[in-house]
Amino acid sequence: MNATPSVPLHSLATTASDLPRSEQDQPQVDATRQVRAAGQRALVLGGGGSAGNAWLIGVIAGLVDAGLDVTEADLVIGTSSGSTAAVQITSASPTQLFADILSAAPQQQSAPVGSDRGRGPSGPSVDHLARTNAIIAAAANAADMRRRMGAAALDLDAASDGSWSTRWRATAAARLPSQHWPERTVLITAVDARTGEPVVFDRHSGVDLVDAVAASTSSGLPYSIGDNRYVDGGYRRNENADLAAGHERVLVLSPLGGRTRHPLEWGMQLAAQVDELRAGGSGVETIVPDSDSLNAFGTNLMDLSTRPSAARAGYEQGRARAEQLSEFWR
Question: Would you give the end-to-end CA distance of the chain in angstroms?
């Protein structure tokens, strides 16, 4: 979530399935520490809870149905619930994903997870929001905040029954059309709970896709991959659009509208990321929820019952923006 400069990605040919079982249990490489080749188009999907994920799917389906397929991006970056969306739209048809949201059986509000808090949460969300707000207020800077968030998550884990990672992995897996990394460049962000350092996973990192997504969406408790522990990638930056540096055109979808709870001088907000990208020569366009979408979200972004309305509102936004974005994207 902080303004730490991105380090290029690697081009190793090794995947998790190629490794011995003992090596599969440990992440092999943080993708931010290797060599990345710049491309033409990057699609960035920020976090935003259950409603935000549905909105992202709706926007992308609306763009596709209006003739603009942004899933063909050279690079897709996903953070928190945006990591789920990144895998979904690169593994299945956005139109079908949208239809599936609309046809799903009505669901009840879920427990809060990740940096995808609602605008006016209730119940357990209140405790989570108050706890993380206190951590932010006590932190000297973004790096200090990440370390404190990780330490707090580890403290919660020490007092738990130890089943969180197993249960959360099953939840993350159920949301994905495929449990295999797409044969393209998809980056999924997380934060090392022990060090506070940002981590980016890709298909060469030696980490199963489900584990990468589960790590990116885990905040209340840390997610375990081997001996390592990770928390929500939104603690680096909610959108992490700066990871698209070097790409000619960058389209950012931010369910939280670019907002941040952090001091502006930390540079966590989307506007700072956009300024960095443009300073580096990238063209940038953003899509944020309009008033209809915000109304569809309701007061808690983790409320599963809002997914159909959020997806519909996003779909209308996507269709409305397709023509204006067509020249930029193509």
Answer: 29
Cβ atoms of 216 and 198 within 8 Å: the answer is no
Task: Report the C-alpha gap between 63 and 146 in whole angstroms.
Answer: 35
Q: What's the token pair of residue 246?
A: 């070097």
DSSP for 253-299?
Answer: E-TTTT--SS-GGG--SHHHHHHHHHHTT-EEEEE---HHHHHHHTT
Confidence of residue 1 (pLDDT cuts 50, 70, 90): very low
| Centroid of chain to Cα 185 | 15
DSSP H or E stretch at residue 134 = helix 124-138
CB 16 within 8 A of CB 206: yes
Enumerate residues 6+ apart whose C-beta is below 8 A from 169: 210, 211, 214, 223
With beta carbons less than 8 A apart as the criterion, state whether 221 and 156 touch: yes
SS3 state of residue 316: helix
Stated pTM of the model: 0.86
Amino acid making up residue 128: H
Binning pLDDT at 50, 70 and 90, where does residue 12 land?
A: very low
CA nearest to 307, candidates 168, 79, 102? 102
User: What's the residue count for the chain?
Assistant: 330
Largest CA distance in the chain: 53
When comparing pLDDT for 63 and 113, which is higher? 63
In this prediction, residues 248-274 reach a mean pLDDT of: 96
